[in-house]
Write a structure and sequence with these properties.
This protein is an alpha+beta fold. It has helices at 7-24, 44-52, 88-98, 111-120, and strands spanning 32-35, 62-68, 71-79, 103-108. The protein has one domain (10-120): Trna Endonuclease, Chain: A, domain 1 (3-Layer(aba) Sandwich). 38% of the residues lie in helices and 20% in strands. A hairpin with a 2-residue loop joins strand 2 and strand 3 (71-79). The radius of gyration is 15 Å and the shape is globular. The chain starts with 6 loop residues before the first helix and ends in a 7-residue tail after the last helix.
């Protein structure tokens, strides 16, 4: 079954494109960032293999790591399009993040909102 890009896929693609541009111009101030493709459509056999390897459901779409005062901080951004809601596993992951001192978890409903989060966390420096 072929699947086209949905609204959330387009948000991810647009956000990632901006991140790459900001990184190229030295505007991203973090040690590492990545998109987690654990929620992507895949064959059942591939999903079973990933699960067997230890892939846990619920992780956020994006993770950023920033070193502050010799401590690694993790900023997680889950992006939702329209009236999208978190799954139960995503809610559990958010709760786990909130229980940890150096983790921040955010929901973003637009690329602009995600960019603002990165600015507030001092990961993105646009000035």
């Amino acid at each position: 079954m072929k699947r086209g890009l949905g609204k959330e896929d387009m948000m991810h693609k647009d956000f990632a494109g901006l991140l790459k541009q900001y990184q190229a111009y030295g505007k991203l101030d973090c040690e590492w960032f990545s998109y987690d493709a654990s929620g992507e459509y895949r064959k059942q056999s591939t999903g079973a293999l990933l699960k067997a390897k230890g892939l846990a459901p619920g992780k956020s779409d994006y993770e950023f790591r920033k070193l502050k005062n010799d401590t690694m901080h993790h900023i997680y951004i889950e992006m939702k399009a329209g009236k999208g809601k978190q799954s139960e596993n995503q809610k559990k992951f958010e709760e786990t993040c909130r229980d940890c001192k150096n983790n921040r978890y955010y929901l973003a409903y637009s690329v602009e909102e995600a960019i603002k989060i990165l600015e507030e966390e001092k990961i993105l420096k646009l000035e």
